[in-house]
Design a protein that fits this description.
With about 280 residues, the chain is of the alpha+beta class. The chain is about 50% helix and about 10% strand. The radius of gyration is 19 Å and the shape is globular. InterPro entries: Cro/C1-type_HTH (IPR001387), Lambda_DNA-bd_dom_sf (IPR010982), MLTR_LBD (IPR041413).
Length: about 280
């Protein structure tokens, strides 16, 4: 019964959410004014097959990550979001946990930056949402699960990403990430997922343990980064970390100086990459 109610709620909210309100073009003729399953899949980073099984009550026990992604994609209110968590058999996130809710203002900013690579992270550097240009530039993160979605974990324990680093730039990045994580643990001491993240990093990465135990401090600064794209080659971009007043959200934005070869290369990556992701 619970699985059926969860699926019915997802379908009901999907059918009431217009493409325009979700930042998507209206497109051609539609059977329903709401989102297609394919569009919800694109927005939430969840496969169409899994959404179908959820709506039909054939998939049970969705993870917190899946419920959060659906709530975000469907633009649910706080009350609706909490209700969806309960229908999924989960406790809604508590005030003393790292918030993963995107404010309407942040969501509208993302909707308008359709040609710019943008990703939003929470206070613990867990990826909440990445737009199609970001996925085209950095690699599609939709298949990442659990700790794979955490930038600190990926930096210390995961596979190499596409960003080219010098020893100095890697040290600065790791220092800033550890400092941010320490700040998050102080602000959200009751968050169990955050505690497990720090414990795993401390136990599995000597480098993380060294930085953590020294209490080193640092902060993110604007930087120029070179990304080695597998098809377009090297592209050098400005990477800025924007913060939202009254929120712990971190918005990562990649831009290129207009009129440069890097700008042309980024435009090519964005155009071809997003076509591949949507197709």
């Amino acid at each position: 019964m619970a699985a059926t109610e969860f699926g019915q709620a997802v379908r009901r909210w999907r059918e009431r959410t217009s493409p325009e309100s979700a930042g998507l073009p209206l497109g051609g003729r539609r059977r329903t004014p709401g989102l297609r399953r394919e569009e919800l899949s694109q927005l939430a980073g969840i496969s169409v097959d899994y959404i179908t099984r959820l709506e039909q009550g054939r998939a049970t026990s969705p993870s917190q990550q899946v419920v959060e992604a659906l709530a975000r994609a469907l633009r649910l209110s706080g009350t609706e979001r909490a209700h969806l968590f309960r229908l999924g058999g989960l406790q809604p996130p508590q005030p003393d946990s790292v918030p993963a809710h995107l404010t309407p203002g942040v969501q509208r900013v993302l909707d308008r930056l359709t040609g710019t690579p943008v990703a939003v992270y929470d206070a613990a550097w867990t990826l909440l949402v990445a737009n199609p240009p970001y996925a085209a530039l950095m690699g599609d993160p939709s298949a990442w699960r659990g700790l794979e979605r955490n930038a600190v974990w990926r930096n210390f324990l995961g596979p190499n990403d596409r960003v080219r680093h010098t020893p100095q730039s890697r040290h600065a990045l790791q220092t800033a990430l550890v400092a941010d994580l320490r700040t998050a643990t102080a602000r959200y001491p009751a968050d169990q997922r955050l505690k497990r993240l720090v414990a795993e990093l401390h136990g599995e990465s000597d480098r993380f343990a060294e930085l953590w135990d020294t209490g080193i401090a640092g902060h993110h600064e604007a930087a120029r980064k070179t990304i080695d794209h597998p098809h377009a080659g090297a592209v050098t971009l400005d990477c800025d970390i924007l913060t939202v007043a009254g929120s712990d959200l971190r918005i990562m934005v990649y831009t290129a100086e207009p009129g440069t070869e890097d700008a042309e290369r980024l435009a090519l990556i964005t155009t071809l990459g997003t076509q591949t992701l949507v197709g």
